[in-house]
Amino acid sequence: MNTIDLTPLIDWSRAQFALTAMYHWLFVPLTLGITWIIAMMETIYVKTGDPEWKKITSFWMKLFGINFAIGVATGIILEFEFGTNWSNYSWFVGDVFGAPLAIEGIMAFFLESTFIAIMFFGWNKVSRKFHLLSSWLVAIGANLSALWILVANAWMQYPAGTAFNPETARNEMTSFWEVLFSPVAVNKFLHTITSGMVLAAIFVIGISAWYLLKNREKRLALRSITIASVFGLMASLFLAVTGDGSAKQVARVQPMKLAAMEGFYQGQEAAGLVAIGVLNNKEKRDAGDPFAFKIEIPKMLSLLSYGDPQHFVAGINDLKNGNPGRGILSIPEKIDRGKVARQTLTDFKNAQSAGNLVKADSLKSVFADPDFIKNNFSNFGYGFSDDLEYYVPNVPITFYSFHIMVMLGFAFIAYFSLFLFFSWRGQLPKRKFWLWIAPWMIPLAYIASEAGWIVAEVGRQPWTIQDLLPTIASVTKLDSGTVMVTFILFAVTFTVLAIAEVKIMLKAIQHGPKNLGGTK
Amino acid sequence: MQRKAGESVIYKVWRFYLDGFKDLSTWSRNVWIILLIKLFIFFVIIRLLFMPDFLKKNYKTEKQRSQHVLENLTTPNSKL
């Protein structure tokens, strides 16, 4: 049988998807978070009637408008890529993706588009209270839109509430509520929207601090910092809680990802958490010496992953080679089980082609057998490659992204506390060093946010759907050169658009709160 | 009467959007221009020329599409 090396095609297709997703994510978190801050500021305006608060609200609304307009529809490219580059995957996920994405499309269109128009065009055309309601609905609508996308993503990490139909080669939803309320989906949603809130608070503080340094827009800056530091502190504390929840879910449903996040090769009880570490090269890591340097917190990985400081945590080697004492199957065992599932699907396809409907019906019923689902179909994806290394994600990228995200997350808690303290003591204008630091925290917030997605997506490789479908079976068999050309095209387009956004945003910030809002 | 009232609401909504767009400040107009250029690039250039839906383009019926994917899921013709 002829074999085709799919590695270049998979690499370019993945690079293209990663580029698009990371570009899309430059815009989303600010929208998710700043809409809440705007709604809070406008609430104060409506309650107090102080026109300064209207000015403040309008200014941040203007920056939100720029971010929204430049960012809108960037996510649609991801959907194009599903159809072009990942057609097997798109078909295989079936209506599991279709339903949440359709709801997201409708919600985004009706809730966001309608009420954003009222936000920008309605200052003098609707009552204050209706305008305020619209601002809150924009915040709620934007975050609910994100819910559906994140539910779809969570299903890829933990495919619950569905059944595979061999006749159509698609997964079909058996329980909408299981898909919506899977613990992975709930944690992912809460963790993601709170990360957007943190980023938005850092954005508001950073720009306000710049105004204070320039000795302009003082009232706007001081009030904005107070609101953003309170909001940011609460969001960053909640972010730590939801991050802990996410880690517990990863430990349960994606143990290989957890092991890669921690550079954890040899499983043990009372496992320590690496606070800071430098990984060795692959040869040394595989030989049992993963770190050149590390500072470890004893028992913390067991505690954070399972809520028990003595609990066993599986390492990469346990997950590769198996650990019968701990009930962990080896990858070769999973490969055998996956191959049985694939062979059953092949037999079904052959029986259908031969017109042997009795045999086809009998084999179709196997896919509904709970034992077959548990033992074989749940390992379906392992039947595509015999290479054990294929099932281990890129450890350095996952490890460093995770640690950068966590370190910055804790730094943000301290940062918000500090600004809240300075604000409370009325010392902000004198704290030049911290005011100078604040604008530079904005890119760090974006780095932390992107790093979070790198952990989530690189850490689950090679799976497009955990344990069911690897990238090798998901990708469309296109010419890798074509994918490379579109990658370059996207890179150029996205770079130009990103530069345009930054330029317009910087101009609007320099211009300040004059000529307020989106209209004259 | 009811029909007239319905038209009135539609007209009001239309005027709301029309007035809003007419009154846009210069920076808002620039943002809208970039937005429209971006949408043209995404939906016309990228979608039509570079990113067609592979299964819809190459297979006419749902049955053919499922057969194609089934073939890909069961035929080990690739290596890494």
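Chain A touches chain B through 64 residues (CB under 8 Å).
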